[in-house]
Amino acid sequence: MRKKSLLFTISIILLSAVNSYSQISKPKLVLQITVDQLRGDLPEKFMKNMGEGGFRYLKEQGVWYANAHYGHANTETVVGHTVLATGADPAVNGMISNVWFDREKGRLIYNIEDSRYPILTENADVDASTEIDQSQVIAATDGRSPANIITTTFSDELTLMTNGKAKVFGVSVKDRGAVTLAGHTGKAFWFSKPKGEFITSSYYYTEYPKWVKQWNKRKFPNTYQNKSWQLMHKPSTYLFGDRDEQEWEMDMAGFGRTFPHQYGSKDSAYFGSYLTFSPAGDDITLNFAKALIVGEDIGQDEITDFLAISFSSTDYVGHLFGPSSLEAEDNMLRLDSTLADLFAFVDEKVGLENTLIVLSADHGGPDVPGYLESFGIESGYVSPDKWDKEPSIQALKQKFGIGQELIHDFFPPYLYLNEKIIKEKELDLEEVEKAVAKELMGIKGVALAVSSFALQKNQLPDTYLNRKALRNFNRKRSGNLLILFEPQYFINDFNGEKVAVNHGGPWMYDSYVPVIFAGSNLTGQRIIRKTEPKDIASTLANILGTKPPSGADGEILYEVSNLLNNKNR
Ligand SMILES: [Zn+2]
Questions:
Q1: How many Å lie between the centroid of ligand 1 and the Cα of residue 561?
Q2: How far apart are CA 493 and CA 250, in angstroms?
Q3: HSE, side-chain direction, 13 A CA sphere, residue 428
Q4: What pLDDT, in 10s, does the model give residues 394-453?
Q5: Ligand 1 centroid vs 112 CA: distance in angstroms?
Q6: Which residues contact 206 (CB under 8 A, 6 or more apart)?
Q7: How far is the CA of 96 from the centre of ligand 1 (A)?
Q8: What is the Å distance from ligand 1's center to 77 Cα?
Q9: Of 269, 242, 241, whose CA–CA distance to 255 is shortest?
Q10: Which positions of the chain have pLDDT values less than 70?
């Protein structure tokens, strides 16, 4: 009798030990951070002047993959974010570019537009006059949803595994930075520049949660009124301290090319845009994310929650001033303190030991041609809007008996032909595509012009660029030709909107991003093995024990997975 009860006691002790062990080690929160346009080398390049608790914490306490590259051709924002969310290539997840031509609807589509789900706030849609990336202006509606993402996201799989008990959220200044990571089953909030408020669409809510109403009512962005973006430190301590004014920097909507950049009055038409062109945008995103963590009780129980935050300022600053500028350098230091602030807050509310942090970027970014040329590196701009008038294309039109335009439009990386006239003239589309591709390959700055028929039939040699083109090719959404530029060649005039430089290419500066895991008692490691950002979703699924997202075919990053799985099982 006594023996039996002793055994009973021991087994109870053992059982509770096992239970508490697994409770401690399973993260209460997966915090997925995306920094828009954070090229892989930038955090360490500027770490000397960074503080504690941000990138330095990630470096000392995190598993840092220092050789991660995207494998698709079109390194744009929605494309990268969706790869991070789904672990699938754009060819598979369907998000092949920021815009594409929908042949059934007969018009261009902005990636996450959805007329069925209007924004809950009136007149909160994008402000066309200050939109750096004109793709968003193309949307035919202010409605937004993740419906165009074909495969599931890791966040979806977490929802399914927990039967909807996991709390899943995505937050960003950009709609596509939030909607993609929240997936089909989470909730997304993004920033309205005209309103200065965080908004959502009827896909997610019929009415704003109380804490969102309260946050918007507080008008936190207005605290920037009549202030300015100033340098954090003395100019002499900066690598680019002697380069505040570079001729290629953009004076967007009067925000200026030198410090201090004035935010001006909250009543000015550009106030909301100025905030996003500077570190203020990230600070506002952080402030809202903190309210979300409190308002939704994130990470407060044993069911793992998911919060994705995409910080957009680095992208805007990169487009306007270039990554090699005093603005970009100061932005990195401020991003570092924003991250330190976020990690300290999460530590207080959830505990970093209970949080699995993963940080990456949707794409890298190139240096501005002017900067490269100041060091003798050849660089330049290409003008696809002039290609229809090129002598070689004119000759081709004559051959096919086409009097009108043949090259209808170019939305990177896809070129759209005038299919109507090709049909009218009873020409063979495949033959025309291939003939145009051949001629475009002769234009300066073009590295690859390939017809969609060739991609579909897989008639191409196995080269670096063709592989990237294939991973970007979706039969229903891709344009007639995929165009890739030579290294250091860019478009900068995009439907009348000029920027200093554009990412979106297949080359290293655009594909290179950090992939860093931290928290959950991980210890510092620097991994130089080649990895891909799409490995993140597969790895998270493996660690949390969900099934892989439906298109996820990344590798499992075993340095992180082994460590955490040994604890969990
Ligand atoms: Zn981006």
A1: 28
A2: 13
A3: 5
A4: 999 999 999 999 999 999 999 999 999 999 999 999 999 999 999 999 999 999 999 999
A5: 15
A6: none
A7: 14
A8: 3
A9: 269
A10: 1-25, 493-497, 566-569
